[in-house]
Amino acid sequence: MISFILNDRVYTTGLPPGAVTLDLIRNEAGLTGTREGCREGDCGACTVLLGVPQQQGVKYIAVNSCILPAGELQGRHLVTIEGINPEEGLSPLQQIFVEEGASQCGFCTPGLIMSLTGYLLGTVDPDDIGATGSLAGNICRCTGYVSIKKAAETVSGRIGHSPAECCSSREHLEWLVEKEILPSYFLGIAAMLQAMDATDGFDANVSGHAVTVAGGTDLFAVEAEELRNAGLRFLSRETGINGINVLENKILIGAGATVRDIIDSGIFSNLGNFEQSLELVASVQVRNRATVGGNIVNASPIGDLTIIFLALDAKLRITRGSDYREVQLKDFLRGYKVLDLSPGELLESLEYAVLDSATCINFEKVAMRKHLDIASVNTAAAFTVRGGRIEKADISAGGVAPIPLYLERTSAVLSGMKVSTDTASLAARTARSEVTPIDDVRGSAEYKKLLLGKLIAAHFVELFPQWINVEELL
Ligand SMILES: Cc1cc2nc3c(=O)[nH]c(=O)nc-3n(C[C@H](O)[C@H](O)[C@H](O)COP(=O)(O)OP(=O)(O)OC[C@H]3O[C@@H](n4cnc5c(N)ncnc54)[C@H](O)[C@@H]3O)c2cc1C
Ligand code: FES
Ligand code: FES
Q: Which of 236, 262, 254 has its CA nearest to residue 319?
């Protein structure tokens, strides 16, 4: 049995842990305000909030219920659109959508309202950019995005700033209740969750070889039916796998850390454009769940995090029970979906060295659209430069080989070279000759090679504008 709080009351279901939360909400609980669109995490129509108890308070995140397995709900708070409706009339967010004409057929509106509510729960300092950005994972097919954007901006302008210091604090919830964004029952949820045992009576159906579920954003986007009755191991329920630690000369990231955890931790804030690049991975809902470990083990040739950690020359720690071994990420990826990982082994964490001040880095990604899309080609680069010469280069590229590729030859050829337009051209040429892309929906092999060359050149233009003649390079 799985027990959790659904809106304002305790709810118990006999559905298996691999059942999809969207089906539980609509078909079992009969709450049809949450919409079913793509069932792949792509449209945001099914957005709900997941409240996870913390040492103090509850942390709420917006998630796509169509790719959220029900086992993740045990001992947590699930909030659907019905759970934020006031007893009478419209909530301030709903009212603003009406005023701005931001809803026509209304199919996408519950998802949009839930995403905005998730944003307000997750910040004490709302602003226009954050409010609009929180909607990047919600697709609307009939209202213009201009009025939806205006509604988001009106929300942040009208609501003001929370007096709380931390968004999972009671003070922040009290402020949102006072603003009528949330009903008052939210104030009692932390105590209700504390009274429930987070695991009591919960059986993840683990027998024999269980499938490891981290964020489930890959697994449940493609294999939800197959996983419904499978044995599942939920990493989010295991301690010690999702922390982020800054040590004296290295950064240690638990494999269960999410993209959002990395952004919130600030560890990428001094790493070139890496932090802004993470803001373009998928959508808020996916970033709230997608983990580092899932990105690497999924072994997609275009995984953004894998490309970034290849350029940081990350080392992985793999465990089996109390045994462990270490392997460089570039050696871990062996062939299309082939990894140096045996059944029963777990990717526990990765680490990379703190970069010295002479190292600069950059990430480039071209996708069919800016938000909510995986790359056609992506690449990351780290250059250590002293006295105008490249001492060391680590360059990676995705979408141009069966695996996310560490560009061995390109990285090596740059060692000792002066930073110049000629060197940038050489890097682009070498990279093009080092890859073996295929024709697919994201472009022809020839296009991807060409694109990679341009993106390698872009690293130089972005990082060394004083030494590069852009016109000559193009
Ligand atoms: C709408 C949408 C948009 C997306 N956009 C992007 C994008 O822009 N960029 C991008 O890079 N990705 C994108 N993705 C893909 C996906 O979100 C990422 O790859 C994500 O990082 C996967 O992590 P997860 O925790 O959800 O993995 P899961 O789905 O939980 O797991 C993936 C695989 O890894 C295994 N696994 C997970 N953790 C471990 C571990 N610690 N040890 C051993 N095995 C493990 C699982 O068993 C499974 O086989 C998108 C996905 C969706 C649905
Ligand atoms: S139904 Fe489209 S994201 Fe869930
Ligand atoms: S209002 Fe119709 S899909 Fe958005």
A: 254
**Stated length of the chain:** 474
Ligand showing the shortest atom-to-Cα distance for residue 254: 1
Q: Could you tell me the CATH number of the domain that includes residue 110?
A: 3.10.20.30
**195 & 219 share domain:** yes
The DSSP code for 328 is: E
Ligand 2 pocket, residue 45 CB under 6 Å:
yes
Binning pLDDT at 50, 70 and 90, where does residue 168 land? confident
Nearest residue by C-alpha to atom 3 in ligand 2: 41
Closest ligand 3 atom to residue 102 Cα is 1
| Residue 276: Cβ within 10 Å count | 12
Mean pLDDT of 446-454: 97
For residue 372, the model assigns a pLDDT of 76
Q: For residues 35 and 65, what is the distance between their CA atoms, to the nearest angstrom?
A: 10
**Which residues' Cβ are closer than 6 Å to ligand 3?**
103-109, 140-143
- How many other C-beta atoms are found inside a 10 Å radius of the C-beta of residue 212? 18
By alpha-carbon position, which residue is closest to atom 28 of ligand 1? 216
Print the domain residue range for 448. 244-473
The residue whose CA is least distant from atom 47 of ligand 1 is 212
